[in-house]
Design brief:
alpha/beta, Rossmann fold, 3 domains, five-stranded parallel sheet, 17 helices, about 15% strand, globular
């Protein structure tokens, strides 16, 4: 793993790489989406056959109850218990996030409120590359259930027994064998087999990400997603732990970004030695072997303040602070999910602490946090004005409306007086 001096040029290079536009993925996704939008099931099944090697019909597209029951028998009991444990924690956090309806009297005769209502139908996209990520089903479906969403559709090209067991535990029954841009198109536009959803959530590969961006004019999405990333800010700490967290993130994908930023050359060298040692214990096909070369590094900062400035500029998906203290945490303000102290291994947040692992990448953490119950509800305003309230506010409204040249607005109030 490289050690680089953190300069403006080095920082710009990392940020430019992350923000580069994937034109090739956009073109391919656009072609698939247009086909699915125009030709529905015929296009969906054709692309599934071509890209996933599955020959499906309207009936076999959906996982049957018989398949789910058979799959559960192949899941080890300890894994079933782990899924249930993680689900409990995720649900507990989601319950805490749930917004409430309220009303207040802002002045006599003027009552204003917030009404919280769930979305009707959502689509959970579950990646199905090397493994189908059943943990992502927990992270997307549970907040939706807590929000009160009535219909949850799951799209996964090759769902594993563990994913089907997790779905059964959650009571999620509509699971379609589809992935890629074609699945996003089916969820966004609807086909004879797939109902149109109100929102699509969940991570995916570059084509899924391109497709989600493209359909966002027609259906809500959770957030754009780029390659996964972790940034560790440390002045000291246990090199073994830091190296292990770097590798844990690096193994997601060959494009994954794993960065340690430190003012300590001694720590940087110790972590490099540990990364090299631990990497040799991983299989050669593990993506970490590629991502550590392509997109990851240890950046030697001139000071802790320089490291903090860089971290806030990056606004990483995962931010780890092994030497966490209140002052440092306050200064590091931009991140999707923050891991405090030496024992807060990043995979614990990926699976079981209860926080969500569907997180903003590519700097989106400056504008939003991770997936939550808030993504599955609408907070609508209400107002109820009495005759006395109208009398009090009429002069205010008519003055403002006429100042903006909106005569009919003013008259809509005056006609009621």
């Amino acid at each position: 793993m490289r050690i680089l001096k953190l300069t403006d040029a080095v920082a710009d290079k990392f940020l430019a790489r992350r923000s580069s536009h994937d034109a090739a993925a956009d073109r391919i996704a656009a072609r698939i989406l247009a086909d699915v939008r125009k030709n529905g099931d015929a296009a969906l099944f054709r692309w599934i056959s071509r890209l996933d090697g599955l020959s499906l019909t309207q009936k076999s597209l959906w996982i049957s109850r018989t398949e789910i029951r058979a799959a559960i028998r192949n899941v080890p009991r300890d894994l079933l218990r782990a899924i249930e444990h993680a689900a409990r924690n995720i649900r507990q956090v989601a319950e805490k996030q749930r917004p409430r309806s309220w009303t207040i009297t802002v002045e006599p005769g003027v009552r204003v409120g917030q009404r919280v209502t769930p979305l009707g139908t959502i689509g959970c996209y579950i990646p199905g590359g090397r493994f189908s990520l059943f943990s992502t089903l927990l992270m997307t479906a549970i907040p939706a259930q807590v929000a009160g969403v009535k219909r949850i559709l799951v799209a996964c090209p090759k769902p594993s027994p563990a994913l089907l067991a997790a779905a059964d535990f959650l009571g999620v029954t509509e699971i379609a064998r589809m992935g890629g841009a074609q699945a996003i198109g089916a969820l966004a536009y609807g086909t004879k087999s797939i109902p149109r959803v109100d929102k699509i959530c969940g991570p995916g590969n570059r084509y899924v990400t391109a497709a989600k961006r493209s359909v966002s004019n027609d259906v809500a999405i959770d957030m754009p997603a780029g390659p996964t990333e972790v940034l560790i800010v440390a002045t000291g700490g246990e090199p073994r732990f830091i190296a292990a967290d770097i590798l844990a993130q690096a193994e997601h994908d060959p494009d994954a970004v794993a960065l340690l930023v430190t003012p300590s050359l001694q720590l940087a060298r110790a972590v490099v030695a540990e990364v090299d040692k631990q990497l040799k214990e991983l299989p050669q096909e593990n993506p970490a072997w590629k991502s550590l070369v392509a997109a990851s590094a240890i950046l030697l900062a001139s000071s802790l303040d320089a490291a903090i400035r860089f971290a806030n500029r990056v606004a990483p998906e995962h931010l780890s602070i092994p030497n966490a203290n209140e002052e440092l945490v306050e200064k590091l303000s931009e991140a999707g999910s923050v891991f405090l102290g030496p024992w807060s291994a990043q995979p614990i947040g990926d699976y079981a602490s209860g926080t969500n692992h569907v997180l903003p990448t590519s700097g989106w953490a400056r504008a939003r946090g991770g997936l939550s119950v808030l993504d599955f509800v609408k907070c609508s305003s209400t107002q109820e004005i009495s005759r006395a309230g109208l009398k009090r506010l009429a002069p205010v409204v008519t003055a403002m409306a006429r100042a903006e040249g909106l005569e009919a607005h003013a008259r809509a109030v005056e006609v009621r007086q």
